[in-house]
Specification:
With 262 residues, the chain is an alpha/beta fold. The protein has one domain: Alpha/Beta hydrolase fold, catalytic domain (Rossmann fold). It has nine helices and nine strands. Strand 4, helix 4 and strand 5 form a beta-alpha-beta unit. Helix 3 crosses helix 4 and helix 4 packs parallel to helix 7. The longest helix has 17 residues.
């Protein structure tokens, strides 16, 4: 068993951008870090919002730390962010990507936010997650497929004068035990979808190779939000906040939030 204390990776820090009396909690995805929500957060902050991006438990350190977490630990990390923003803002929205979208749906189900933006959240995937609860004992880590997104993010960071630490994600290995927890969270969220009545924006991409586009319809058909907006991207892969259509995503999110601030 590892006993060394965890250390945050460069760029994995949570962030708080103080703004006006409306705020949002930006929630990153599975094995990632608040960095993948930073550009969106800065876009919203520049338009007057208070923005908080918590670091989900076990993320941004090393995979062995993530392996120890239950999905409820990730949920509690989001609760911390909501409490921090609620202390400053009377109106709070959740804005989540991928697993962060699932967690945003769950806090919306619990009535803890005034609305939610859900990007590429998986209620089902094509990958065989069902066996993860057993495989975690014989194959603790799964090596993910490597794409070129990290290199593209580093290039943009350099072009904009930022430190080029990339995506800050666990590209070296995904804990199979955490995959089992992700599957449990998917089931938890799906069971409670009919409890959602707050304003909801869903953004999914037809070119997402991780989360099938059909997930958007699954969510849309089960929630009870009278204020429901669906937006479709054509060219982006999974990490919508850093992909080729990211600027369009930022405007979709701002347009939705700004219309519901009164």
């Amino acid at each position: 068993m590892e006993t060394a204390l965890p250390q945050l990776r460069r760029g994995a820090e949570p962030f708080l951008l103080e703004g006006g009396e409306a705020g949002c909690v930006c929630v990153h995805g599975f094995t990632a870090s608040p960095e993948e929500m930073r550009w969106l957060g800065e876009h919203l902050h520049a338009r007057g919002l208070t923005v908080c991006a918590p670091r989900l438990a076990g993320h941004g350190t090393r995979p062995a730390m993530m392996r120890r977490q239950h999905w409820m630990d990730w949920y509690e990390s989001v609760l911390d962010g909501i409490a921090l923003v609620r202390a400053r803002c009377p109106k709070v929205f959740a804005v989540g990507l991928s697993m962060g979208g699932l967690l945003s749906l769950r806090v919306a189900e619990a009535g803890l936010v005034d609305g939610a933006v859900v990007m590429a959240a998986p209620l089902y995937v094509h990958a065989p997650l069902r066996l993860a609860s057993v495989l975690k004992y014989v194959r603790p880590y799964r090596v993910p497929q490597r794409g070129d997104l990290d290199a593209r993010v580093r290039a943009i960071q350099r072009e904009t004068g930022r430190e080029d630490h990339g995506r800050v994600a666990y590209d070296e290995g995904t804990p199979v035990a955490s995959i089992a927890q992700l599957r449990a969270l998917m089931g938890e969220v799906r069971r409670h979808l009919p409890e959602i009545t707050v304003p909801l924006l869903l953004i999914y991409s037809q070119s997402d190779r991780t989360v099938p586009f059909g997930n958007m319809q699954v969510v849309a058909e089960q929630v009870r939000s009278p204020d429901l907006v669906l937006k479709t991207l054509e060219h982006s892969d999974h990490v919508l906040t850093q992909e080729i259509e990211r600027e369009a995503v930022y405007e979709m999110v701002w347009e939705f939030l700004s219309a519901r601030l009164e």
